[in-house]
Amino acid sequence: MRVCQSLFILFSLYSVLLCPAFAQHTQQLFEEDTSIELSKSLYYLHETDLPLTIGDVSNRRSDFRMHPHDNPNFGFRSQGMWLLTSFANITNEEDWVLTINFSQLDKVDFYLVQDGKVLSQSHQGKSQQEQRFRVPTFRVHLPNPERVDVYIRIESQSSSLITPLKIQPEPLHSTYFQWDSLLWGLFYGGLLILAVYNLVLFFGVKEKSLIAYIGYILAVILWQFVWGGHIHFFFPSGIPTWLVGHTELIFVIIGICSGLFTVSFLETKQNATMAHPIIMLLLFVQVAVGVICFTDVLPSIWKNNLVYGVGLIAICSYIYAGFEAFFNHFKPARYFMIAWSMLALGAIIGMLSLIGVLPSNDFTTYCFQAGVFFESGLFSLALMEKSRSQLELEVAQATDDLRNNMELIEEQNARLDIARKDAIKASNVKSQFLANMSHEIRTPLNAILGFSRELTNAALPTEQQEQVRIIDTAADNLLTIVNDVLD
């Protein structure tokens, strides 16, 4: 009999431990200056065909099951789901703030419930109007240490249901919000400074890859505005429904801009001949993926997986192009390779977090943004290196041209010197020739003139005198001609 009783008690204890409905944990709020992660104490309830109301889930509290993992990623779901957590405030701080550090949920409905009564509620998310921060944030007032329940309904057609939930005192949340605003201001400010700097640089050097880089920076800023939740500030009445359902397009845009920058910066047609056709093909594929996403041909889950898959393949092709260009002695490609390697690491971590392989925390949430920021800075260094290399090449070409011109001038001077010496030599030969000719011609002419003049004074017949006169005149004329030629 005692054996049967013991077995019955053990079976009862085992059943209680296995049934989460009887083991729901109440989080105690002990400290007034610490954030408390609630993701490990979440209970969940999936909706089926019809959405459930707060009244429905309050009555079905025993149907909630504890999340079996520490990772608050519930994957892609076409229907909504409910989360439940309980806590009791035993501190002197009465104002607390609940936050879900993920901005891509379409609908996030908070309900603060005590003894079956809804004390407060808020309806946030991308497609609703009450969200005032970049991530869903719910302020609660806890004046007494009695247990309260927080029910959260989440729904999203464009992303995984990720709920990194935490609670913190209001003063700590204010400090956190200020730091958050400061860091994102540095993020956007740094990118804008890089864009403006390279735009000014473009007007000086007319390098087309600078324009592609500026387009990439603007695409990154647009992506972060949407993915980081800052777009709520531009749509206080709620983000347009079409934009909520097409968030994946920002990944397509940033992928296309990255490809165009890769082609123009690396000059893949000359420096990466093997990677060039692959990149061009992937650019065409990404445009096709963008059209598919724009026209809603595929379900949301398929669209997201297609965008992420093609994006990762494109990143790998860009990295390969960088290595190929570097091995082809294109030195600026070294910064390009480091930049894309950092972004690829951040992208892989972020995507593995989105699909639930890695846990969802601050590191996995923001590693891609950090990778994008440092990648943009390294791209700017790569552009500077490319401009410097082009300037060095132009200087080297100008130096070679000057050296060739100097050699040509020296060769011409040598030829001119030889010609001058030859001319002097020829002039000397000519002078010697003229001197010799002057002596050899004038001497006989003078002799002829002397004899002819002597014969003129002699008594000769008339005919002979005429002949002597002709000889004298001819000799005199010939001497005049010789003098004119030789002198």
TrEMBL record:
Catalytic activity: ATP + protein L-histidine = ADP + protein N-phospho-L-histidine
Residue stretches making up the Signal transduction histidine kinase dimerisation/phosphoacceptor domain: 429-487
Transmembrane segments: 182-203, 210-229, 249-266, 278-299, 305-323, 335-357
E.C. designation(s): 2.7.13.3
SMART domains: HisKA
Entries under InterPro entries matching the protein: 7TMR_DISM_rcpt_extracell_dom1, 7TMR_DISM_rcpt_extracell_dom2, HisK_dim/P_dom, HisK_dim/P_sf
Domain of life where this protein originates: Bacteria
Keywords, sorted A to Z: Coiled coil, Kinase, Membrane, Phosphoprotein, Signal, Transferase, Transmembrane, Transmembrane helix, Two-component regulatory system
Gene source species: Alteromonas australica
Leader sequence segment: 1-23
Name of this protein: histidine kinase
Lineage start: Bacteria, Pseudomonadati, Pseudomonadota, Gammaproteobacteria, Alteromonadales
GO molecular function, one term: phosphorelay sensor kinase activity
